[in-house]
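=== Structural record ===
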Amino acid sequence: MAYRIEFSRRAERQFKKLPREVQVRIKPRIDTLANNPFPRAVKKLSGEENLYRLQIGDYRFIYQVQKRALLILVVKVGHRREIYRRISKQ
């Protein structure tokens, strides 16, 4: 079963602010989460319920897996030096 991938409004704005070449490099990796939301490179965030991190080069994606709805919700996108500040499920 394939999961549906959605971006929160905030994450979508953050993704669009990334340089175009970074977006092109990262998008296929995000799309692979539809078939396997927990690949080896993914880590669960400690202290956060149901949030996971995917790192791609210097960039990180924080996402939530909703198993019953078969949904992956990307909640935050950014550079590694900024991504962990004020993580919230918006």
About this structure: The two ends are 26 Å apart (CA to CA). The helical segments are 9-17, 20-32. Strands lie at 4-7, 43-44, 51-56, 59-66, 71-79.
